[in-house]
């Protein structure tokens, strides 16, 4: 799940720098970026360095973002629904390339609202004082070199063999804690992957026991909606900032 989230984040970051989005899509992203509710729960500003300099390592900006995001209140269902509505309506041309149809919006909204809390809990796991996503990225970076947007894309898009990563990446307490959350909340989702994990990490990896030293840093502050949370209003903000907001959204929900 970490890998999939990072892949989508990298793809969206690359799109900000390299792709020409349609005007309706750009407007939709700007609408989201100017929403007080979306910014309050997604806190996207720490990701801006990645969009303004694609050659830097993503590790520190992502760590800063997750520190901020996990300390913030969770997104409410109203905010999540408004984000999905704006993206699916404004970016219909871009999303159609992936097979999305306008009739899918309600189903996508329901899925995001259902699984967002679990994904948020996963990305807010900590091993001691270190965020688990940060730990995983750092361990990978120590092996493959600096993780820029492009190297992250290559690593998680099938151009590199992730199965050869050592156990300090694949079999950590962080990975086990993430597995436990997924297996508890979405039984059967991992399927045959559970057997693969047992083969690589040992039978105890999938025994459901909570690994030592792992804590949850996700804030339990109640989500706050303004009266406009159901229909974001457009304001003036740069395209890079709007893309960073939606990048953070889909990185979290992937």
From TrEMBL:
| Transmembrane intervals | 231-253
**Among its keywords, does the record have Transmembrane helix?**
yes
What residue range is the signal peptide?
Answer: 1-22
Q: Which UniProt keywords apply?
A: Membrane, Signal, Transmembrane, Transmembrane helix
Q: Which domain of life is it from?
A: Eukaryota
| PANTHER family to which the protein is assigned, alphabetical | SPARK DOMAIN-CONTAINING PROTEIN (PTHR34862:SF1)
What is the recorded name of this protein? Uncharacterized protein
Q: Which organism is it from?
A: Asterophora parasitica
């Amino acid at each position: 799940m970490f890998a999939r989230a990072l892949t989508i984040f990298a793809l969206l970051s690359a799109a900000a720098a390299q792709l020409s989005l349609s005007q309706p899509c750009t407007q939709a992203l700007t609408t989201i970026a100017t929403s007080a509710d979306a910014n309050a729960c997604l806190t996207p500003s720490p990701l801006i360095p990645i969009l303004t300099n694609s050659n830097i390592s993503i590790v520190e900006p992502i760590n800063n973002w997750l520190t901020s995001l996990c300390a913030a209140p969770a997104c409410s269902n109203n905010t999540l629904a408004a984000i999905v509505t704006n993206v699916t309506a404004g970016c219909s041309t871009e999303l159609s390339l992936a097979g999305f149809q306008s009739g899918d919006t309600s189903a996508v909204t329901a899925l995001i609202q259902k699984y967002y809390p679990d994904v948020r809990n996963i990305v807010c796991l900590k091993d001691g004082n270190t965020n688990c996503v940060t730990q995983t990225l750092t361990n990978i970076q120590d092996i493959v070199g600096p993780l820029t947007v492009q190297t992250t894309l290559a690593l998680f898009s099938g151009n590199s063999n992730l199965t050869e990563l050592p156990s300090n990446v694949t079999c950590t307490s962080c990975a086990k804690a993430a597995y436990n959350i997924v297996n508890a909340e979405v039984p059967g989702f991992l399927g045959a992957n559970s057997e693969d994990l047992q083969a690589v990490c040992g039978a105890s990896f999938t025994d459901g026991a909570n690994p030592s030293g792992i804590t949850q840093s996700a804030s339990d502050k109640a989500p706050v909606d303004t009266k406009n949370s159901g229909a974001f209003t457009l304001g003036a903000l740069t395209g890079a900032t709007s893309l960073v907001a939606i990048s953070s959204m889909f990185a979290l929900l992937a």
